[in-house]
Amino acid sequence: AVSKAPSSAGRPVTCEGSTTRTVAAPLTRPVNHMLLTVTNTGSKSCYLYGYPVVRFGEAQAVPPVIEASQPQAVVTLAPGESGYASVNLSATDGSGANGYTAKTLTVYFQGRSGSGSVGRAATPSLPAKGTYVDDSLKVTYWQQSMDDAVSW
C-alpha cells in the first residue's frame, strides 16, 4: 500500500517571521561577526530564499551580500530545522567608516523573486550593550549548515 504523507507535509512555503524563530548571536571567531539562526517553527517545510535583509537601528541602507557565499541550492528547512547566515559587522582593522552602536535588529525575509521582502520581519534581540556596526557591514546568503555560514 502506498502510504500517504500527512496533510501538513504539503508544498513548502517561504520562510518568514511568522513561521520561524530568529536568533542573533555574536561570534568569537571570525571576530566582529554575528550568526543569524532561523528555525522553522511551522508545520510545513519552508524555503529560505536569498539572504537576510538586515537593518541595524535606524539604518536606511541595506547591507550588501557576499556574492561568493551563494549556495548551490535554495536552503530548505523541514519543521524544526535551522538555517544560518553570518553578518560581518565591522572592519577588524578599524578601517570602516560611520560606525555606530545599534540597539535593535530587524531581519526581513526574501521571496523567490529576490526583490522586496515577504511576510513578517523578525526582530531578534541584540546584546544589552548593543552591537557595533560600520560601513563594512555585509551578510552571507542563507546556508544549510552553520560551518558554511561562518566560513565567510
Topology:
Elements: E1 13-14, E2 20-27, E3 33-40, E4 46-56, E5 75-77, E6 82-88, E7 100-102, E8 105-110, E9 118-122, E10 131-133, E11 138-139, H1 146-150
Parallel strand pairs: 1-4
Antiparallel strand pairs: 2-3, 3-6, 4-5, 4-8, 6-11, 7-10, 8-9
Can you characterise this structure?
This protein is mainly beta and 152 residues long. The protein has one domain. Helices cover 3% and strands 38% of the residues. The chain contains 1 helix and 11 strands. Strands 1, 4, 5, 8 and 9 form a 5-stranded mixed beta sheet that branches. A 4-stranded antiparallel beta sheet has the order 2-3-6-11. A hairpin with a 5-residue loop joins β2 and β3. It starts with 12 loop residues before the first strand and ends with a helix.
How is this structure best summarized?
The chain is mainly beta and 152 residues long. It is 3% helix and 38% strand. The strands form 3 sheets. Strands 1, 4, 5, 8 and 9 form a 5-stranded mixed sheet that branches.
Q: Per DSSP, what share of the residues sits in E-state strands of 2 or more residues?
A: 35-45%
Kindly report how far apart the N and C termini lie. 48 Å
Q: What general form does the structure show?
A: globular
Q: What is Rg? A: 16 Å
Q: What characterizes the major β-sheet?
A: 5 strands, mixed
Throw out a few tags for this protein.
1 helix; single chain; four-stranded antiparallel β-sheet; 152 residues; 3% helix; 11 strands; globular; mainly beta; five-stranded mixed β-sheet
